[in-house]
Specification:
Blueprint (H helix, E strand, L loop, with lengths): L20 H6 L45 H13 L2 H7 L1 E4 L15 E4 L13 H17 L8 E4 L17 H7 L2 H17 L4 E2 L23 H16 L16 E5 L13 E2 L3 H8 L3 H7 L3 E4 L3 E2 L2 E2 L4 H7 L9 E3 L17 H6 L4 E2 L4 H14 L4 H18 L18 H14 L1 E5 L11 E6 L4 H5 L22 H11 L3 E4 L11 E7 L19 H11 L4 E6 L7 H6 L2 E6 L6 H7 L71 E4 L2 E2 L4 E6 L2 E5 L12 E6 L7 E7 L6 E6 L6 H5 L3 E10 L5 E5 L2 E4 L1 H6 L5 E7 H5 L12 E5 L2 E12 L11
Parallel strand pairs: 1-2, 1-11, 2-3, 3-4, 5-7, 6-8, 7-10, 13-14, 13-15, 15-16, 16-17
Antiparallel strand pairs: 8-9, 12-17, 18-19, 18-30, 20-21, 20-24, 22-23, 23-30, 24-29, 25-28, 25-30, 26-27, 26-29
Helix pairs in contact: 2-13, 3-12, 5-14, 6-7, 6-14, 7-9, 14-19, 16-19
């Protein structure tokens, strides 16, 4: 371990002798400890835990929730309230629904305790809803909950505000955690937590699912950017300050202050340690590794008073954490001393053996206090209630969970309902918060190379800016407005400054001239060029990759063109992880890892552009919190491991005060150029390996491979290349099917597992243009599942490109074997039809995916 754990002794709870004497008598006996003693309610014959995944509490370090979390006044209030609650109301407290699948009026019947706005959920399904619409949504749900007869227990409303209040147009978007980890500044983290809490409170939410304390050990993981670094030392130094920033300090007998919100440390445990960097995968390792690396900053967050913890989708040696009572109860409630509540991840309980999204006593008995059941909440509520009544879930376990949830609601101030900040939409993207975000950008930048002292740029220079410099969506990455961060435009960031806008402002303020040209073309030769490029937005599922090869050729071609012309060039690389970029580093005079900086692009100009004499206005402060790879292979590369040999080591970072020379780097990637794709099938006019097109009719089949793009000899269905949004980017499918028969155009390869993607409500998406309307039935197929899209195609205007998205879960429910998909897309038709298709891929459901016929 890089940091010695503190041993926190349990302290006695002393009740006041006068005013709270009666209250103390109502409280459970704690035997001189302020720590409620849990009971493991999983009967041995029902436990799924194997010896390889059994935690031993005596090996784990000590921590403890502050005594203020369980003060006498709070516990007495809860005891009295629970005495008035029915079993239906208690069960309701343990169920959380997503706003996309529940209406306020549902709360008049179902006494649910919580709602959330998931990554693609928003008021009215509009991801670009105004801040005031978000406020009204919160008020509508609260009003419905308050109108329900019985015990009055307020809702707690959670949201993923993971780099600022990233769901709401106009909010301040801070750098993702990977950039903040490079800053190595705990006080900055505390201030970001405070600003985020205010902006969340403005829109009426009470709770954020953060801080994320993952320690990513394989950078191929699509959530690497959510971790602060590959070593737990950074998360350990940040967990407490971020918790205190979000919540403030807990005080006995008091709620957290208005403008503060509840936090949720996540994802417990080892989500960053899965084999191959697979999201929701398995950590195959020892208990010592689990403690020394992946316990991360959880003890520090608990000591700081974090009010909830989210359990991970992932598993340890084959056993899912959501069903592992030795982790959730024996350890978390034992030596770690956590007194808040544990919430599961999105339908994670449905992944446990013997469980489904609609029923899972196992997760609850193992230690999950609140089940996140976004779209399955109604049957889960009914089944959980039945399991309590039957004794499968003991009443004592239900009471334990409800007490923990109510404790957090009391501390969050939900019973007081003092919402001083709610509705103050002028605080979203406030000048103070934007200035803080700009500072965070400055401090997160890591300088990998600066040959010939091309940086800092003299403010009076002629500067050409190329690439993605004006794309705030790309600079912000995933979890921005939408779950995957895709589909955003400049209009979605009204209180923001792009990297280009920041550079233009700085250069012109110094008397220079700045020009933007996305493709790097120019008329007047510049003194210096800046090329901004990198990864396009993604979140989990979509973000998992096979290798660390950056790949796209266009930025490299621009860099090499400037190099050949003798123009000093600066590369600004946007990414959610270190990637193999040796060719790009070689082609640039200076190379800056800017990570995913968010909405304040001016922070980059602050460091890159000097004053009129070329002196730095701000120096580089960031250092690598992830080791930079020497090859693209992508196997784990972390300091301290045997054979550690990075291109740039953990902790590396040049500055104007600490210059160094970087020689020519090897451009041998170490991987084959062609890799398989789980989520992209037909893109830019080509079938992405290993996928290929197959044409089939009732008489047999004809395979149309990558090398064959002409007509099929069979008359029932044929395919040819055609122009789409780009030249030759589409396939034109012509069906002429004899009466009583069908024909099928489909994409095929070896099976892939899309279970996680279906659980995350991903969709199969494609762009289409109807040239001849169908005379018969047309079905969209995925494996053996299919849905009727005849009406969609018949109603489309002739010759007009459109996009359709169909939820994977919809196709799963019609018979698709989601765990082994070898045919991820197809059109099966009778009669005649001509339709052009392009850009076939998995996509995020941003409220625009459908389930035809449902």
């Amino acid at each position: 371990m890089t940091q010695k754990r503190r041993i926190v002794a349990a302290t006695a709870l002393v009740c006041p002798l006068v005013s709270l004497l009666a209250a103390c008598a109502l409280m459970p006996d704690r035997s001189m400890s302020d720590r409620p003693q849990p009971v493991n309610y999983v009967a041995s014959q029902d436990s799924i835990v194997t010896d390889a995944a059994r935690a031993h509490p005596e090996l784990w370090p000590q921590a403890a929730s502050p005594s203020a979390m369980t003060d006498a006044e709070t516990e007495a209030f809860i005891t009295e309230l629970m005495g008035r609650m029915t079993v239906e109301e208690k069960v309701g407290q343990t169920i959380q629904a997503d706003i996309s699948a529940i209406k306020p009026d549902d709360l008049l019947t179902y006494p649910l305790g919580s709602i959330l706005a998931g990554g693609n959920s928003s008021p009215g399904g509009n991801e670009r809803a105004t801040a005031q619409e978000w406020v009204q949504l919160a008020r509508n749900f609260r009003a419905a909950a308050e109108a329900r007869p019985g015990a009055r227990v307020p809702l707690i409303y959670g949201i993923d505000a993971v780099h600022g209040h990233n769901n709401v147009v106009g909010a301040t978007i801070f750098p993702h955690n990977i950039g903040l980890g490079a800053a190595r500044n705990p006080e900055l983290i505390r201030q970001i937590g405070e600003a985020t809490a205010i902006e969340v409170a403005v829109t009426g939410a009470d709770w954020t699912f953060g801080p994320t304390l993952a320690v990513p050990r394989d950078d191929r993981w699509g959530r690497s950017y959510e971790g602060y670094g590959e070593d737990p030392e950074i998360a350990q130094s940040y967990a407490g300050p971020m918790t205190l920033g979000l919540q403030g300090e807990l005080r006995s007998g008091e709620r957290i202050q208005p403008g503060r919100i509840a936090g949720s440390a996540k994802h417990f445990l080892a989500d960053g340690g899965t084999t191959g960097g697979k999201d929701q995968g398995d950590f195959a390792g020892t208990e010592r590794e689990l403690i020394e690396t992946h316990l991360s900053g959880y003890p520090e967050a608990i000591d700081a008073g974090v009010l909830s913890i989210m359990a991970s989708f992932s598993s340890w040696n084959g056993i899912k954490h959501s069903g592992n009572e030795t982790i959730l109860t024996d350890v978390l409630r034992g030596p770690l001393g956590f007194n808040g509540f544990v919430v599961s991840d999105w339908n994670a309980h449905g992944q446990l053996p013997g469980c489904s999204n609609e029923s899972c006593a196992l997760a609850f008995n193992a230690g999950i206090d609140m089940l996140m059941a976004p779209d399955s909440w109604k049957p889960l509520y009914e089944n959980t209630l039945a399991q309590v009544r039957s004794g499968e879930i003991p009443m004592a376990r239900l009471d334990e969970a409800v007490r923990r949830i109510l404790r957090v609601k009391v501390k969050t101030g939900l019973f007081d309902d003092d919402r001083t900040y709610e509705g103050r939409v002028e605080l979203l993207g406030s000048p103070e918060h934007r200035a803080l975000a700009r500072r965070a950008v400055r401090e997160s930048l890591v300088l990998l190379k600066n040959e010939g002292s091309v940086l800092p740029i003299r403010a009076g220079a002629r500067v050409l800016v190329a690439g993605a410099a004006d794309d705030i969506g790309q600079a912000s990455g995933g979890w921005t407005i939408t779950w995957q961060g895709t589909g955003n435009s400049r209009a979605d960031f009204p209180n923001a400054q792009s990297i280009w806008e920041g550079l233009e402002e700085a250069v012109e303020a110094g008397g220079g001239q700045a020009t933007f040209s996305a493709d790097g073309s120019y008329t007047d030769r510049p003194d210096v060029a800046i090329v901004v490029f990198g990864e396009t937005p993604y979140a989990e599922f979509q973000g998992d990759i096979d290798t660390l090869d950056y790949g796209p050729q266009e930025p490299l071609e621009i860099l090499r063109r400037f190099k050949a012309a003798g123009i000093p060039t600066v590369a600004v690389f946007l990414s959610g992880r270190p990637l193999w970029t040796n060719p790009e580093i070689n082609a640039a005079d200076a190379f800056v890892a800017a990570w995913l900086p968010g909405t304040e692009g001016g922070g980059i100009a602050d460091v890159l552009v000097g004053d009129a004499q070329g002196r730095p206005r701000h120096d580089f402060r960031g250092t690598l919190s992830f080791s930079w790879p020497k090859t693209a292979v992508g196997e784990p590369l972390n300091r301290g491991q045997v054979g550690y040999d990075p291109q740039f080591a953990y902790g590396y970072g040049l500055s104007y005060a600490r210059p160094a020379s970087v020689g020519t780097l090897s451009e041998i990637s170490g991987v084959a150029e062609v890799v398989s794709s789980i989520d992209r099938y037909f893109v830019d006019g080509r079938f992405v390996a290993p996928w290929s097109l197959m044409l089939r009719d009732d008489g047999g089949e004809f395979r149309l491979g990558l090398e064959q793009q002409g007509q099929s000899p069979r008359a029932a269905v044929s395919a040819r290349s055609g122009d789409g949004l780009a030249q030759e980017s589409a396939r034109i499918l012509t069906f002429d099917v004899p009466s009583g028969q069908t024909a099928h155009a489909l994409i095929s390869a070896a099976p892939v597992d899309l279970t996680r993607q279906a659980n995350g409500e991903m969709a199969i998406a494609f762009r289409y243009r109807v040239d001849v309307r169908p005379t018969g039935t047309v079905r969209l197929t995925l494996g053996d599942g299919s849905v009727d899209i005849t009406s969609i195609l018949r109603s489309a205007p002739i010759g007009e490109w459109r996009v359709v998205k169909v939820r994977l879960s919809c196709l799963r429910d019609t018979g698709a074997a989601i765990a082994a998909v070898d045919r991820p897309w197809g059109l099966q038709a009778s009669g005649s039809m001509t339709v052009a298709v392009e850009d076939i891929r998995l996509a995020s459901n941003e409220g625009d995916a459908v389930c035809p016929g449902a």
